[in-house]
Amino acid sequence: MEDDTLLMEAMDKVTIEMMDNLDHGDEIELNEKYTLYHHTEEDIFVINEISEWEEVLQVMTNGEELIFEKL
Description:
Radius of gyration: 11 Å
Structural class: alpha+beta
Number of strands: 5
Order of helices and strands: HHEEEEE
Shape: globular
Distance between the termini: 19 Å
């Protein structure tokens, strides 16, 4: 249950502006468990679980809203 709360907290922190300003290969820590990562060679953004560096969600945008897809 705590993991779900932390994931929802992380998702709520992601913004389109944050994604626009994140360079390839960079990451932003969203909370103690999750980070937003911009892949190095493609415009792919994912929320990773920090301790295992496991991709949990892909984050996409249509320019107006965020779309989260479970991986």
